[in-house]
Amino acid sequence: MVGSWAGQNFCALVCWCDSFHREKRRVAVKVAKGGESFAEAAQDEISLLQCVRTFPGCTPGSMLAHSVSALWGFESLTFLHLCLVFELLGPSLRCLMRSHGAQGLPLPFVKKALQQVLEGLQFLHTNCRIIHTDIKPENILLQVDEESLQKLLHDTAAWSQSINLGLKKPGSLERVKICRV
């Protein structure tokens, strides 16, 4: 079941959904926009994520395990849209920065966050030969506990109902296609 829309970028839209698995957890579903170039970008992302997942120490709950857990697609009237299912993480660093206003984030937090980002980038470069070319606060997601996540989901649902993203709501004329990774 599709929850609220979480955001979008040039290539995709992201929404929060209930998981397809028995444990009924929330997941983030990244839906690639229609068109050949967007499908190609999604396939590239899948290849990169699969590379990351193959390394020892990349187990559920580890910092490296926030990768794609399922892949499927649906057809709109004109395009196939690839969908990637991820573990649901918290807000972006950008959201946290905005909430702290002019005073900024506490220095110990900034140091720890920067250390973790640099360690992640070093891992990607050394082990997977990946160079991340879009490092910015919007692309750094925080991991939060379940209670905080529920509050965030509630607040975001109220926020998303107050704006119009111009997105087609679920349940229109789409057909689901299962794709193999």
Automatic annotation (TrEMBL):
Entry GO CC: cytoplasm; nucleus
Keyword hit for Cytoplasm: no
Q: Which reaction does it catalyse?
A: L-threonyl-[protein] + ATP = O-phospho-L-threonyl-[protein] + ADP + H(+); L-seryl-[protein] + ATP = O-phospho-L-seryl-[protein] + ADP + H(+)
User: Known SUPFAM superfamilies for this protein?
Assistant: Protein kinase-like (PK-like)
Against Pfam families, the record matches this protein to:
Pkinase
Q: What is its EC number?
A: 2.7.11.1
The Protein kinase domain sits at 1-181
> GO annotations under biological process?
intracellular signal transduction; regulation of mRNA processing; spliceosomal complex assembly
InterPro entries from the entry?
Answer: Kinase-like_dom_sf, Prot_kinase_dom, Ser/Thr_kinase_AS, SRPK
Keyword annotations: ATP-binding, Kinase, Nucleotide-binding, Serine/threonine-protein kinase, Transferase
PROSITE patterns under this entry? PROTEIN_KINASE_DOM, PROTEIN_KINASE_ST
Q: Does the keyword ATP-binding apply?
A: yes
One MF annotation (Gene Ontology) recorded for this entry: ATP binding
Its name, as the record gives it, is non-specific serine/threonine protein kinase
Originating organism: Chelydra serpentina
